[in-house]
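Before the break, one more example. Copy the sequence into your notebook; we will annotate it together after we see the structure.
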Amino acid sequence: MPGSLPFLSLAFQRRFLLTGLFFIVVFQGYSQLREIFPLQTNWKFAPGPQQHAFQPDFNDSKWETVSIPHDWAIAGPFDPDGDGNTAKLPWKGEGWYRYPLQWSASFNDKMVYLLFDGVMAFPEVYVNGVLAGRWDYGYNSFYLDITALLKPGKQNVIAVHADTRQHDSRWYPGAGIYRKVRLITVNPVHVDIWGVQITTPVIKPNYADVNVIASVVNHTPTLFNEISVEFRIVNEEGFEVASSTTSGKLAGKTTMDFEATLRMPNPRLWDIGQGTLYKMLTIIRRGDVIIDTDITSFGVRTMRFDADHGFYLNDKRVQLKGVNLHHDHGPLGAAFYPRAMERQLQLLKEMGCNAIRNSHNVAAPELLELCDKMGILVFDEIFDKYDRKADITDTTDFEDFAHRNVSNFVRRDRNHPSVFIWSVGNEIGDVQWNVNGGFDKLRIMTNEVLRYDRSRPTTLVCDSRNSANLRHFDFYDVHSWNYGRRYDLARQLEPNKSVIISESASTVSTRGFYEWPLPVKKTDFTKALQVSSYDLNAPDWAEIADDDFMWQQDEPYVAGEFVWTGFDYLGEPTPYDNTAVRKMGFTDKDASVSSYFGIFDLVGIPKDRYYLYRSYWLPDSTTVHILPHWNWPGLEGARIPVFVYTNGDCAELFLNGKSLGKQYKKPGSTNSTERFRLMWNDVPYQPGELKAVAYQEGQQIGESSMKTADMPYQIRLTPDRTEIAPDGMDLSYVLIEALDKNGVLCPNADQLIKLNVMGEGVIAGVGNGNPQSMEPFQANQVRLFYGKAMLILHSSLSKGEIRVTASSKGLSDDTTTIKVE
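Here is what the structure looks like once it is written out:
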């Protein structure tokens, strides 16, 4: 019966930060059941082939000691003549990791799995000198049964070889064990890894039917005449709200599904911005003895697409206001820190974003966990192309590859309420045009998804408009198209399927950089090697943000958009890649190393475009933003375009107290910028103060000002968090700015800032958002870029504090302190 069941007191699973030694954990009431041990610290690493490094007695004493996550390439050095499309960093190569494991003899009767969230790429895993298993796709999670290879009561060695030489990429992929590693111990009879599937086929205001299927594995040769599986649903307060028990025979060396439907009263719905979650406790018993427990989070919500009206969540129309995110985190590289991801999502939510597309690869599982908690939808994508970008080589068996990778991808992610659609690939030319068996590959992929989850629609992201004539959309459920209203033909041929703009805009800009005259064409790029932040530039295959706003207003059947991209990322530096700069008369040395596409720059500082999206996506929240900055010495009297981004319908602009008149949005204009921006194109520059006062239906809603700064005088440090956890993983992002003596930001400051960090933390990375910069990300100094830069700190394993002092010649120092508690 439903009743009080405090979730935390069950303590079925505990995680411990270990340094190479394991300890037995006795749970309250349940001894030595399922245990999860993160393998985070005390790894050894060396680049290169390292002959015999898999042998347990190999001498690794001179190797570097590292913690996981680890991206061996992000420390550089940059190759100035290298390929900017992959950031000119040394990611191509091979490397070895070794981990010492003292394994207690008390675990002798346990099954032991080693679970990797991602290794770039082609990992080979050895235990005590024996190959435990291989994987291929560097972005996917995989696990290995290493039970028979361990030596209980003795020193064991895990060795991992990562090799990126066969991997291909259109962006910076990183290298090594860049996501977490866990060791899982269970009894021989247990719930399979990712073996629980939860759906909510019936949802009413007063109850929800929750269907659960648990795959139970029996690794023993013994037939069990009766195994009982109990399911309990626990709410966020820790109270049981529903339960059910089923039982059956379980033959030796087999896997069997146990299924039940639980009726849960008065369900709390998972929704946008409201990440209400439940826990499903799966308890396996043989007689009265509990032999395994598993905990799975899930949410209760309905989802559907309507071909004429878009996407519905809980029977309410929701416009998808999404962004694409690559997997790197700027100065951290591919190394995945949950706080780095959480910070990105928080910044995006403040802009009005409600959805993420993990482009174009399996994401870290924490992304989905965070989106579940924060109420953000996920367009869950597994591949970019079906080639070496997915680690498919000439010898790969495609069907086997698809089965293994889709199985892990869908089984791992299918219980996340944030996931609303599965994508099997992105802009795959041979699939769209049915070349080299393209449709057969598409059929295989979509069928594999449906094998493990039929509760969500599938899609293929397309870009070749006329390929729709071949009707590849008959193999999947939703039209997903990138750029330029290329969905129009598919919509015409099959109007009974919904449309998503899976990549929108691809507007390019550099934070803090402005040029005149304004571009006549979106492709008017100059030799500055930076892109003006007036947000009027895009590649020839893309568009500016306002165009996508307009198309969605004019075509309400479009479910929404996913902007390319939320954040700048390493590599793919359009329009200043190697080929483009050579055409301009430059050399490879001049090619940039990071993208210009982001709404935020590489270190998460918002560009002007942030306020354009916020003004449209959050119409009920006040936004008043002026651009450009107002420091233009020597240009007195010159005519400077001034834009205002606001959720208001008009604004009045003032220069040094004198009105320059009002501008009004024109909602019926076919010129998209006139619908969404307010523009004064010829403001005569005078030092002083620009002020914009915004109105909505005649009522003032807010104002903003931009002041001319004096000479740089002082440094200001602003940490995003002043208290972080002592787990060796938590982060604090410290914004570094140059101010004048009156505290006004100096928008042209470019001083080199020296950083002194003391206490219980270290520098995880530094950066400034400059796509041209090849200064190291791991350093104790950073140069300001248009007045700003970022320091990223991560905690140690001890409590205390981190004290940071920033200094620069001619500027006053600043110091900040972060508690590690």
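Residues 323 and 563 are 4 Å apart (CA to CA). The radius of gyration is 28 Å. Try to locate both features in your own notes.
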